[in-house]
Design a protein that fits this description.
By secondary structure, this protein is mainly alpha-helical. The protein has one domain (3-202). Helix content is 81%, strand content 0%. It has 10 helices and no strands. It starts with a helix and ends in a 7-residue tail after the last helix.
Length: 204
């Protein structure tokens, strides 16, 4: 297993004992959006994925895991890429966990979630995730969860929700931008990871 894979697995094993809280939050969001399942995947990507991605930092602050990272034979680049890989895995799991009940709920209400609409929802979810994580992870790695939780999680979510409201974005209105959203999300994540991988004294 590569060094990045070991960091990712460390995150999985660190978070696993606390999965009940995540499942409860997931169930609550599904229940709230049961009447509007079309929005389930984007909302989970915006609200649940960042929580899962940040949880290793919550535990690290409590257990002093940053000290463990420092003594393990891992480069800063491997640790940073492990954080981003964990975030991407969290996004993939959240998308699957959101798409399945969304399709089921649409069918129970005699609705239909066609492939084009589903692809649009996945693209919007990707863009929301990428923008949020690209802000959140560098702050968490630089300052830790305790000092950056509100700044790194709440502010990006608030800004995204404000942009959606002010621009009056709908499923139909974003369909023309799908390739740009995929490419833009990937570019933002790459730029964020590149910045985060730099030594702290070079980030000032």
């Amino acid at each position: 297993m590569t060094a990045v894979g070991r960091v990712t697995m460390l995150h999985l094993r660190t978070v696993a004992p606390y999965r009940t809280q995540g499942l409860l939050f997931y169930g609550l969001l599904v229940a709230i959006l049961a009447r509007n399942p079309v929005g389930l995947v984007p909302v989970l990507a915006l609200m649940l994925t960042p929580v899962i991605a940040a949880y290793p930092f919550v535990i690290a602050d409590k257990a002093g895991l940053e000290t463990l990272y420092a003594v393990l034979p891992l480069s800063r680049r491997a640790v940073v890429l492990g954080h981003y890989t964990w975030a991407l895995a969290s996004f993939a799991g959240t998308v699957v966990a959101g798409a399945v009940p969304a399709v089921i709920l649409m069918r129970t209400e005699d609705g239909h979630l066609d492939g084009h609409t589903l692809m649009t929802l996945l693209t919007v979810s990707w863009a929301l995730f990428a923008l949020n994580i690209s802000v959140q992870l560098p702050l968490l790695m630089r300052f830790g969860y305790a000092r950056s939780s509100a700044l790194g999680t709440n502010i990006p979510v608030a800004l995204i929700m404000l942009a959606v409201y002010r621009l009056h974005l709908t499923i139909a209105s974003v369909q023309v931008w799908l390739p740009l959203l995929w490419a833009g999300g990937a570019a933002v994540l790459v730029a964020s990871a590149t910045l985060a991988a730099r030594p702290a004294d070079q980030q000032a």
